[in-house]
């Protein structure tokens, strides 16, 4: 059974597009071709992988018989990174995190709603004596709080899927291990230290 990751964003958030918006903003938020905010699948996977890595380091998955279970699960789910010879793809498959199909349909019917999904935040660097530094004013486009969903699945044709089943008794145990780590994902995107990108993530079976 496939599952869905739900990202409940509780604050403004910014994942940069790498583009500037002239007088509107110095840094634009990433948008899909329809002009809607989303979290790229690569970023979703990175968030999950980092949470799982931290959990493995702190021995969340280790058993009396297998003290390296967490590390093995990490590699089977997310693959190995490194040189081409060392690289391997994990069994986990992810999509972009987007607004629901119903919300996207509503915005297509009422395009003026799109403007309410973003706003511009201005900031400036403060010097030694509490005075703004010349030329330091920056304007960043951010997306407002919202809920996004990404599809997540296990590739049952992948060799690492069979390795996962050998490490854990059944597929549900794999999902349980993933779900356990989601509490570690609390922020995403840029300016996290300033309160941007506060998020809580949950996992649900598709269709629930």
Core attributes:
208 residues; alpha+beta; two-stranded antiparallel sheet; 8 strands; 20% strand
Task: Report on the architecture of this protein.
By secondary structure, the protein is an alpha+beta fold. It has helices at residues 41-57, 69-78, 101-109, 159-167, 171-181, and strands at residues 3-9, 79-80, 88-89, 92-94, 118-123, 138-143, 147-154, 199-205. The protein is 27% helix and 20% strand. It has a 4-stranded antiparallel beta sheet with strand order 4-7-1-8. Helix 1 packs antiparallel against helix 2 (69-78) and helix 2 (69-78) runs antiparallel to helix 4. The longest helix has 17 residues, at 41-57. The model has no long low-confidence stretch (mean pLDDT 86).
Label the structural class.
alpha+beta
User: Order of strands side by side in the largest beta sheet?
Assistant: 4-7-1-8
**Order of helices and strands, N to C?**
EHHEEEHEEEHHE
Average of per-residue pLDDT values: 86
Structural shape: elongated
Helix proportion of residues, in percent?
25-40%
Low-confidence stretches are none
What is the number of helical segments per DSSP (H or I, 4+ residues)? 5
List the helices and strands and how they pair.
Elements: E1 3-9, H1 41-57, H2 69-78, E2 79-80, E3 88-89, E4 92-94, H3 101-109, E5 118-123, E6 138-143, E7 147-154, H4 159-167, H5 171-181, E8 199-205
Antiparallel strand pairs: 1-7, 1-8, 2-3, 4-7, 5-6
Helix pairs in contact: 1-2, 2-4
Task: Write a compact overview of the structure shown.
The protein is α+β, with helices and mostly antiparallel strands.
């Amino acid at each position: 059974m496939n599952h869905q990751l739900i990202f409940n964003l509780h604050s403004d958030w910014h994942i940069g597009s790498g583009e500037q918006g002239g007088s509107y903003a110095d840094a634009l938020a990433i948008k899909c071709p329809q002009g809607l905010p989303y979290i790229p699948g690569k970023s979703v996977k990175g968030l999950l992988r980092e949470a799982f890595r931290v959990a493995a380091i702190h021995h969340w998955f280790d058993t009396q018989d297998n003290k390296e279970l967490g590390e093995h699960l990490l590699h089977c789910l997310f693959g190995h990174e490194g040189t081409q010879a060392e690289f391997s793809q994990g069994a986990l498959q992810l999509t972009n995190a987007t607004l629901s199909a119903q919300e996207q349909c509503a915005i297509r019917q009422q395009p003026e709603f799109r403007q309410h999904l973003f706003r511009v935040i201005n900031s400036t660097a403060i010097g030694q004596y509490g005075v703004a530094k010349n030329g330091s004013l920056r304007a960043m486009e951010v997306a407002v709080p919202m809920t996004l969903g990404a599809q997540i699945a296990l590739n049952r044709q992948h060799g690492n899927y069979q390795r996962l089943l050998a490490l854990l008794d059944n597929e549900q145990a794999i999902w349980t291990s993933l779900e356990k780590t989601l509490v570690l994902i609390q922020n995403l995107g840029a300016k996290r230290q300033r309160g941007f990108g506060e998020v809580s993530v949950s996992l649900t079976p598709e269709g629930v």
